[in-house]
Amino acid sequence: MLHHDVAHFCIAPGSRSTPLTSSVAKNKNCSHTVHFDERSLAFYALGYAKASKKPVAIIVTSGTATANLLPAIMEAYESMVPLIILTADRPAELLYCGANQATNQINMFSNFVRCARSFQAIDPFTPMEALQSQVSFAMQVAKDPIGPVHLNFMFREPFVNDLDHDHDLEYSCRPIKKYVNPEKMVPPTQYDPLISKLNASEKTLIICGLDSMDIESFQKVCLLSKRLKAPIFCDILSNHHKMPHQENVIAHGSLLFKTSLLNAEYRPEVVLHFGGSFVSKHLYFFLHANKPSQYVHISPHKKIEDPFNLTSHVFTETTFSFCRSITSRLNETRKDHFLKCWQSAEALAKAAKESVLKIAPENPKHKLSEPWLFQKLSKFDLSKHNVFIANSMPIRDAHDFLHPQKGVYHIYGNRGVSGIDGNLSTVIGIAKASKRKTLAIVGDLTFLHDMTALSLLNKDIPPVTIIVINNNGGCIFRNFPIYKEKNIYEEFFEIPHNLTFSAIKELFNISYSKANSAIDACDAIRDALACATHSIIEIELDASNSTSERAQILDILKLEEAVLC
Q1: Which of 168, 183, 280, 419 shows the smallest number of beta carbons within 10 Å?
Q2: Model's pTM, two decimal places?
Q3: Sorting pLDDT into bands at 50, 70 and 90, what band is 475?
Q4: Is residue 57 within a helix (H) or strand (E), and if so which, with residue range?
Q5: Which segments of 358-485 does DSSP mark as H helices, in order?
Q6: Where do the domains of the chain lie, and which CATH numbers do they carry?
């Protein structure tokens, strides 16, 4: 594994996995994390791999221990994260005979891994070169497209290495099979039809999806936007926030897409889509209703990001490479009416948001809400922090209301399959691998779902601050038609838990505070961000306040329709 740039090993204790665990324990070149909860461990590995941008290995024993890895593997598969799953297994003779803890683990993750291999029990006669070759191949397959790999090892008792340690070292030091994949360059002529279309059009919209931007790439996108007079819409997880200057960015686009404001004047003729998917489903609805004549997807990854089948062209390359190749070939003179239309709408959306959320925190009558919280977080200095935003309502409210004035070092989320499980574990893995302070904003159910992860927090992990929005249940369902069915809604969907989290302080020995007012919330967040220890801030609020504020903002925007463009 070390030959394949595996950065870290995450281990859950178990008997059948002794040979794998012992190999890591005895190798001084390995770093590792040990945790008792396999599901949490797998999400921790996911976060570690995201932040380190290197493959991370997970070692577990047989049986249900392997099954607990499935949610994180699904997330890794869809979000293209390199996890190396090393599962211990019973030998073939113990299957289908009632042997304890034995089940069929061969290809058990087949729908969610790039490659799967199962190896019979290793003994002195095992051709190690063949095994090594299979591992090398599996690791290579996992690079294009990037994703998880499952290697299943069947072991017989006793769980000691039948091969002596010197033999083990001999093979670990030998060269492995190397796969060389020269970078493919896009011939300049392949851009010609697109450049002709862009030069003929004055309505180009640039959209930046998941993980599409670093500072250099976004600088290139801004130059492209300036040449095209094109508005830019960036997903909350695109990481454009690394750049302090946001020229031509429609920061409140996620609000605008929810309204009826965007009439035919806003219809793009060409869309340039950089990177992955988008949190905003309303963006997709807008594009589906206003189909551009050309929709160009640019990504280095071979993954379809096209839920409404809009894509006409795909360029498999980086944002930086694409922009560098076409920008200088575009006409410099063109009208800016399309850009100004979007900028006018942006100004209206910003004004509507601020008019509703401008209440001073000192006002004792001010009621806490999720929109207000994210608006307030925008004013803190997060330029040296990781920020993780959990699924359900937090990621949606962050998209609408989090606009960091001083930038953010990196924003993370688990949007592969968008589950609420494993979010805390992912946060801690990110903090550990990045060696950087990390702020997480999660809902109460998300927090409850993954509390065992808090046992991973220790002095070796940079300070983690977790803001828990406690609105007493699954309030996201208030945004769906089922909310009108009052006789079944609360019991079957919102499921209020009536819990508070103060006992966390004693249970996990973590600093805890609770905020019931805007002043308390601001003070707690400010103190936690400056603190050198882990902390949890519980912000208790009534979800009705949040629902009301969101509705007020959208109502204001709809009333302004007549004055646009």
Answers
A1: 183
A2: 0.92
A3: confident
A4: strand 56-60
A5: 370-377, 393-401, 423-434, 444-449
A6: 2-173 (3.40.50.970), 188-348 (3.40.50.1220), 361-556 (3.40.50.970)
